[in-house]
Each structure stands twice: as structure tokens, then as C-alpha cells.
Amino acid sequence: MAEEEKKEFWRWTETNWANKDIDWRKGKTITGGVDVGSVSSQAVIMVDGQLYASANTRTGYNSPQSAVNVMNWALEATDGMKLEDIKFTVGTGYGRVKVPFSNKAITEIACHARGANYMYGPSVRTVMDMGGQDLKAIRTDDKGKVLNFLMNEKCAAGTGRGMEVIADLLQVPIVEVGERSFDVDKEPPPVSTTCVLFAKAEMLGLLKKGYSVNQALAAYCSAMSYRVFTMIREVDVVEDFVITGGIAKNRGIVERLEGHLGLKSLKTEVDYQLAGAIGAALFGRVLYEKQK
Amino acid sequence: MIEDFKKIYENRHNYMKAWKAKNPDWKVLGYMCSYMPEEILYAAKVLPIRWLGGHEPQNVTEPHIMGMFCPFCRDVLAQGLLGKYDYCDAIGITHTCKHINQAYESMILHRGVDHFFIPTPSKMQDKQALPYYAGILKIFKEQLENWTGKKITEDDLKRGIAIVDENRRLMRQVYETRKADNPPISGLDSMYMVTASQMYDKQEVNKIIADVIKNELPGRKAKNDPGIRLMILGSEDDDTAFINMVENCGSSLVIDDHCTGSRYFWNTTEPGNDLMSVIADRYLKRPPCPIKDMPNRTRIPHIQGLAKEWNVAGAIVIQQKFCDPHELDKVAIVNGLKAVDVPTLYLEFDVTVPIGPFRIRVEAFLETLGSEDLF
């Protein structure tokens, strides 16, 4: 097989990180948040409510093990912290009830709202979380409490996993998809279906018809952005508006969605995929203080 | 015993086969919609039992009914085509939605069963509806007489009305107990009770319900902590796996508005001289299916009243996927509940429901209703 065919174009960068400016040994309350999603898992460690360390990896077939792995990787980035130094851990995401070392499970909807409030500030009122297999449109108050939410039903079109499939099909590294989708002379019409399987067939047809790869990417990103747009409208989008989850890193979707909505989403330096785990760790802090 | 209703629900076919063997002078009619006038059937010594789905994947309906018809009608048809209800001597339906009518027509076409179609009025709020429907029921009575070869007397009709009304009164009594801060019966057991009432001989079910009311419910608590009080409403719903999941997430379902639930038994007949009019009047006045609830949407104030009286913190609005009547009511109902400060969670049901993804939505909904201060 040619080298090119073996490459996993869907593979995104897995990371771990710690803030070396924080001396965790001086912290009073160290809490953890673990978000075991359908496609990716994140762990964060917070010291007195400040983001101290994190890790972001792919979820394996064994979700408890994925939780252990991602937390271990976050710990590896720290200056000698061990799991037992974390006083309270909250699990969230699909695998939330199977995080072996968690003290409580809270849904990712609540955690993403709380995490977005931390990442972007109290002005956030609408959170669009675009994850591996879920789309969540969440309305929140100034504390990050969920007021209302909507999730996609059954179909995973418009989610990260669908984008991974398309990246592999077109042999474009997933991190380049957004950028390249704008490298077209004219925005092509969206593919007529967002069903991943049908979209695959339709895009192959477009390529045969003479579309460039970038045009095909633009057609897919456009269809996904419309799909997300029709869903998010149902929760009555109110500013400030933010996007979390892996798709938030894809400007091909983000900027098209912003265009449909007629508003810009806030930006942050924090990894967009960490929102759920950050919210979980912040809830952990409150719960730990309560139980003391 | 409360557990008996679950046994009837789960073993409905075995119960009915045994019942039929013990009652050779009765016939059995399977019906597909809660508007079936059961009083006349009991009067004719024809046991009405409601056909519900099996909640299992099936591969027999695709050639006969479109995939975009609601999963309930496809599941019901599957049960018929698979021979699960072969002990029924006939099937019957009233004029309701096209989807379930399609299941009925398909059964006749492919299984050649005896059948009865009752053209209930489309516009039940019209003045002409009562005399029209009373006349239709008279025709239905005569059709049954021809089928069974036995005359239905006034006394037979009074006996039929008494049996069905007794079930309605008992079910209302049970539902009243669910107003308590800590209800004596769960939403799941209530569902088993009301569906058992529809799928087995009411004369026997009524005795069990009366015994439960007298001997089991007083002082009973379904749960140590009932959690958040919820209402559930929408299309046909006997999805016990879903109900069980919701009640295991820190909540209690204390009231419903389903055709398989409270809408089925809510009102009794009112006294009158012409028994056909008495029966017709009862069905015209019952809490309606959305397809009959026009031009005025009378369900909205009814549902608001239930939410208030049963003191619910939130409501789960469900509909069978592709159920047009309920889909058209969704916005009005969600807005109606919002107007009385009852938040809603909307979910679409299929033959089987994905419990995991639904659990996330339910738990998140309960978190928004909960009092736990995490901020």
C-alpha cells in the first residue's frame, strides 16, 4: 500500500498541558473533571478554581480505561501531582458514570454550560457544543446554569465524527479542513444531505463531476453549518454566543454558522474541547466544599 | 397485588389464551385506538383488548406500510402479522389517524380477519356530533348482533357500561393517590395498571385494582424519596423501559396525558335514557386525541389543569416519530405549559428508544429543575 493510503487523516492532535506558574502544593482545593465523550476524552485539574492542567485524547473502546488514561496524561504534565492529591472528581460525558475514580457524575450539558461560563465569562447566554456525536444548543444564565437545551436526535450529521469520515475520504488532514474549505473561488451549494453516509456518496459524485477537493470540503462544511443552524435556532440564540467542542476548531463550520446567525462567537485561548471537563471540575469544587 | 399488572402486561398473550379457554361463550376483539366503545362489546359478550406494540425490532411490516408511518402503527401491525394476536376473533378500529388505520387495513388485507370500522365523528365539538355518533353506535351494535348471533338487550348494555365505568372510576381513584407528596404508586406501576386494564378482562382487572386500593396503597410509598415530580404526555406510550429509566434518575412521574394512560379512563358515562347517546356522549367528552381536538384545542387547559393539580415541576412531552397529530400540537402544548411555568423536555419515540442518549437528556432536564446548588 502506498504511504499516503495508510495515513489517518481524521487524527487530530492529542495534547497535555500544565500551567507552570501555579504551584499546586500551595492550593487549598484541587479538583478534577473528566469528560469521557463518544470520540474524545478530556481531563482537567483545577487548583482553587483555576485551570492548572489538562489532557485531551481519543476515547478508546473501553471508556473507564479512557478516563484513567486521560487523567494520567494530565497528571504527567504536572509537577509531581498524583491522583490522590485530587480531592474531588466529577465525571461527565457519555462515560460519566464509568469514571472509576470520580465522586459524582453530572451531565455534559450542565458541565459545558458551566465550563463555557468559566472560559468566556458571565456574559455567555448561548452555548453551542459541537462534539463527536452530539450537538447541544444550551441557553444559560450568568452563572452558567442551564436554562434550556436541545440535542440532536439519532442522526450524528454535523458532528465531529462525520467530519473525521469526510477528512479521511478526501485525504485532507482534519486540522486543515476548515481553512481549505475557504480556498475556493466561489462558495458551492451545500451537499443536499448531511447524513454522513449519503454525503460521502454525494461528494464522490461531486469529485467525478469536476469539483476540486476544496470545493467538496466547502460543500460539506456548508451543509453541516446549515444543519447546526436549523437546530440552534430552536433555542432562540441570545448573545453572547460561544462554540465549544472539537468542531469549534474548524473555521469552515464556525464562520459559516456565524454568517447564518448574523453574529460572531466569542473566542478564547483555552482549548474549546475542555469546556465539559472544566465545568465538571468547577462543580467538583463546590461539591467538595459542601461535603467538608 | 400491584405486581399482577406487570405480569398481565408482560404475559398478555398467555393470559388471554388461558382466559379464552375458560370463556368459550365469549369472542375476543382486538382494537387499535382508545376511542373503541368497549361498553357495547362487553354487552355483546365480546372481550375488547387493545393491541399494543412489542417494542422489539421487526422485519415484517416494510412491504406493507411505509417507514415514514409512525413506529407505533408499524409495531402494532407487526404483532398482528407475526400472529401474536391470533386468538382474536376480529379486529376493530374507530376513525382516527391514517397511520393506525393503515395498520388495520393491512391486517384485513393480509390476514383476512373479521373486522369492524366505526366512523367516529371528525369534528367532535360540533352539535351534530352526538346524534350522529349515537346513530353510528347503534349500527355498530347491530353489526355485533349479526356477528355473534345474539341480541344485545338494554340490560346487556347497562352491564357493559357498568363494567367499563367501574374500571374508569377505580383508575381515577388510583391516579388521585398520586397527588400525594410521596405517591403510593410509581409511574411505571400506574402504566402497568392502566395498560393491563386494556389488554385483559376488566371484570378481573377491576377486582385486582379494588383490592390494591383497599389493601396496598394506604400508607404505601413507591419510593423513599420521590424526587422531582414530573408529568408525561403525548402520543401512545407504553414504553416501560423509558418510564423506568426516568424514575431511576431521581424523579417520579405522577400524572400523564396519553391515550394509553389517563385519556383512556378519565371520564365515566353520564346517566341518560338513550344508552347509545349515553355512550356516544362519553367519548365526545373524554380528553381528546389531538386529531379530534378541533377547531378548539381543549387539551391545553386540560393539561395545564393536570400539571397544577398534580403539582409537577416539569413535563416530558413525547411523540411517536412521524405522529402527525401530536407533532402539530407540540408547539401549542409546550407554550401552554410554559404559560403555567412548567418547563418541558421534548423527545421522539421509536419502536425501541435509545435509553443511553435519552438518559442524558432526562438527567440534564432534571438538573435544570433540581434545587442542588452547584454554583
TrEMBL record, chain A:
Keywords: Iron, Iron-sulfur, Metal-binding, Oxidoreductase. Residues 33-284 form the ATPase BadF/BadG/BcrA/BcrD type domain. One of its GO terms (molecular function) is metal ion binding. Pfam families: BcrAD_BadFG (PF01869). CDD domains: ASKHA_NBD_benz_CoA_BzdQ. It comes from the Bacteria. Its cofactor is [4Fe-4S] cluster. The keyword Zinc does not apply. It is an enzyme of class 1 (oxidoreductase). Its EC number is 1.3.7.8. InterPro entries: ATPase_BadF (IPR002731), ATPase_NBD (IPR043129), Benzoyl-CoA_Rdtase_bzd_qsu (IPR017605), CoA_E_activase_dom (IPR008275), Dehydratase_Activator_Redct (IPR051805). This is Benzoyl-CoA reductase, bzd-type, Q subunit. It comes from uncultured Desulfobacterium sp. The gene is bzdQ.
Automatic annotation (TrEMBL), chain B:
InterPro entries: FldB/FldC_alpha/beta. Transmembrane segments: none annotated. Gene3D superfamilies: 1.20.1270.370, 3.40.50.11890, 3.40.50.11900. Pfam families: HGD-D. The keyword Phosphoprotein does not apply. GO terms for molecular function: iron-sulfur cluster binding; metal ion binding. Keywords: Iron, Iron-sulfur, Metal-binding. PANTHER family: 2-HYDROXYGLUTARYL-COA DEHYDRATASE, D-COMPONENT-RELATED, SUBUNIT OF OXYGEN-SENSITIVE 2-HYDROXYISOCAPROYL-COA DEHYDRATASE. Belongs to the FldB/FldC dehydratase alpha/beta subunit family. This is Putative benzoyl-CoA reductase, bzd-type, N subunit. The lineage of its organism: Bacteria, Pseudomonadati, Thermodesulfobacteriota, Desulfobacteria, Desulfobacterales.
